[in-house]
Write a structure and sequence with these properties.
The chain has about 210 residues and is mainly β. Helix content is about 5%, strand content about 45%. The chain has one helix at about 10-15; strands spanning about 40-45, 55, 60, 65-70, 80-90, 95-105, 105-115, 120-130, 140-145, 155-160, 170, 180-185, 195-205. The radius of gyration is 19 Å and the shape is globular.
């Protein structure tokens, strides 16, 4: 089975043997955005492409496929796994883009100065763990971003990490709801015809 899935006893076999099926075996996958969760699983699966972000805007903007993580959902040891695919449908070839993984106003990880071509992709995979909770909570995470063309044999790969050169931790208030999102910030020579959209966004929460 894939990473993050839980292997549970077969319920039919348990019933045939007359065994009690504990309620702890029940876990929730794909609950609505903003819904509190009991156990880990797939929290959000994007089922349609986002609205394209167009034009010369140099202001950081979230794609409109997001997930609202309820307040106090993160506990010490909770893991959040994220996968995303940004499709750069039209570019000028001269502009650069920043892509960011956001939790509310907090940037969890980012890559700056991307120079995508028409019909190229930015693929992001990231995993973080909650180190401490509260208003001054902290998380630590790592991952990567790669920028291949469709079915390309090679791609450019970038590291994604929390924190700075001096620390690997990122401050994050766990007592409030946090909107998890992918954002784009266009820089330098973007034109009105530039277009990018979020085609895939999946979040898994464990613990």
């Amino acid at each position: 089975s894939g990473g993050g899935e839980y292997l549970l006893p077969d319920r039919d076999d348990q019933q045939q043997r007359g065994e009690r099926i504990p309620s702890a075996c029940h876990h929730h996958h794909g609950v609505a955005s903003g819904t509190a969760r009991r156990v880990g699983g797939s929290a959000f699966r994007q089922t349609a492409a986002s609205t394209a972000i167009l034009g010369t805007t140099e202001v950081e903007t979230n794609f409109d496929q997001t997930y609202s993580l309820p307040a106090n959902s993160l506990k010490v040891g909770t893991v959040v796994r994220m996968s995303a695919l940004v499709f750069h449908t039209l570019t000028t070839g001269a502009e650069t883009h920043d892509l960011l993984y956001k939790a509310g106003s907090t940037t969890i990880a980012s890559v700056t100065g991307l120079d995508p071509a028409d019909n190229s992709f930015s693929m992001m995979d990231f995993e973080l763990v909650c180190r401490s909770t509260g208003v001054a909570g902290t998380v630590v995470g790592m991952g990567s971003l790669s920028t291949p063309a469709l079915r390309a044999a090679t791609s450019t790969r970038y590291s994604l990490m929390t924190g700075t050169g001096a620390t690997s931790t990122q401050a994050l208030d766990t007592t409030i709801a946090q909107v998890l999102a992918i954002a784009i910030d266009r820089q330098a020579a973007a034109t009105d015809t530039d277009s990018a959209r979020l085609d895939y966004f999946h979040l898994e929460i464990i613990g």
